[in-house]
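Re: How this chain folds, sequence and tokenised backbone to follow

Filed under: protein folding, tokenised backbone structure, sequence and structure records.

Contents: The amino acid chain and a row of whole-number tokens, matched residue for residue.

Body of memo: The sequence and its backbone structure tokens, given next.
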Amino acid sequence: MAIYSLKHEGQTLKQLKKVIAYNTNDKDGLNSLNNPRLISVTSNIGYCENTNNKDDYNDLIDNFIMTVDSNSKLSKNNRQRHIYDHSVISFSEEDDKKYSIKELEKMAIETAKLYEPGFEDTPYLIYPQMDSGKLHYHVVRGLHDDNGDYHRVKNSKLKMQSAAQKIEKKHNLTLTGKNNPENYIFKMDDNGKMEKIYFPKKYENTKISKNKKIENNHIIDLKNKEVDAIDFNKSKIVNKKNKEQNIAKSNYKKTNDFVNDKYSKIEKLKEPINYSFLDNIKNQFTNQKELDKEYRNKLIKREEGYIDSGIKKYHTDLSDRKIKVKRYNSEIDKENKKSEIINNSINSLKGKNRRNDIREEKYDTFKTKINDLYKKSENAMSFLKLLNDENIEISVIERKNRNGGITFTDLKNDISLSGSKVNSYFSYGKMKKNDKHLFDLIHNYESNSIKKLENDYKNETLKINDNYKKIEKNGETLIYYKLKDNEKRPYNYNLKISENKDRISFGQNSNDFDLRLSYQCAKEMGWKNATSENKELSIRLMKIAYSENKDDLLFFRSKEKLSLVDLKEVTNGKRLKTKHLNELLDNDMLHEKDAQRVKEELKIRGSIQEKSFDCDEPIKNSVKVRFR
């Protein structure tokens, strides 16, 4: 497998330098010492053996930029504005294992030469990269050669695809695109013949979501480091707080012991003094007792002063420590809030990754389902029917430039994808070119409608069953299935009846219930006959009408002629009444060969009996109109 894609083209040296920097410098979250972006570089204007040698590498880059600049200045055509392009070439993982990096690099250069034969004449840089987990080559080349000749390629996408597929065949690489037989399916054309058409596989392109996830994981890692730093800082604050609280507890114990010791001393000082017999005799003639009592009171007051001073000192210290603890608690709260904000951001990024994974899985499943349904379908109408069975709507958006876009919508899961994202085959332009029948069905509403031929207008007010709802808008009657959100998707109607009641148009995903409802509405409005430009739609409607009332076989008619095989499908193989055969002939509704067979049958029927022939009643000796 070879994939060759143009990333962009640039007009200035500043842009060129940015591209070179992109291929040189590591990207945060994606690259590391073990997974560098810059592995090596190959060029035709210089040589750099080791890109880790910054001087050699910078000399090569300077020489390349100067060459691109000087070559572009040799051009005298002012309209040649682009001076370089940037492209990427990659191969399958099987091919990566089969060949070396240098061998694949030679194939990449060979692919570039097939794309633009003058590739070697222009300055180029080729960067092999494996930083995304898959080997690929970035090619940066100037668009002017040494003579100032311009080598820009028009219709680059198609030519790149062609070059890649030629390389696949030449080197027996994994086959892709039109080289791969699995990319072809068979579809029935309008004439009932099977034709082989190219319908490429839709390869999952998850690089953007994958890189986004890598970026998110890198941001998560950085934020986790911030949380770790906050936790470390918070632990230091908590340690300081705990230290203050422990000191306060220690001071409380010391102060308590100190106060108790002082109170013990005071209690002892308050105890009465035991004097001896001689001291008592002396004290009768002196005032020693009063002196001792006064002395002890002084000692008690001193101890009480010590107590007051100790308690006051403790409370002052405690108050200071409480202020510190309060400040530490405030700092811890701030750190907790910082941590909470960052953790919420981390959880949000993890949630985005999970939602992206779920979304990618949903989209991949949705894309696979649509691709499988298209491969399974025999023709455009059966594809629309299969989509309808899966509650998938296909719609077209018109633009003023007469171009548009195709959109697929899963009505059940409420997800939408553009046709080109489902498969490049479903882009507006490619569908218009490759499957005109399908394009006409979803683009041209007139071809998906029925128009009255004649009627006896009966009813102004239509009655519909409870499974549908009716909306009057701009004179038209829009009928929706009751569970549809007509406000969100107003064009997703099942039926649309014109203002003058002469046309019924069908939604893009009409089913047999809608067809039966259209038949009932047409009868209620007094239509006698209806015609459609869409043959397949006519046959489906004829089948519905015939199942409801055999006499209404030709109530619906196709402007395109029918075959007996078509009528067999309508009647499930039952024989037709003579009046229906006559009506088919009178209105020139059959192909020439089938009309001749019907005439022969009518001659035989006319010679045997004149009455209408019931399709269930056998006729002896008749030439039976057989469906083959």
Q: What stands out?
A: The CA atoms of residues 1 and 175 lie 5 Å apart. The longest helix spans residues 288-376.
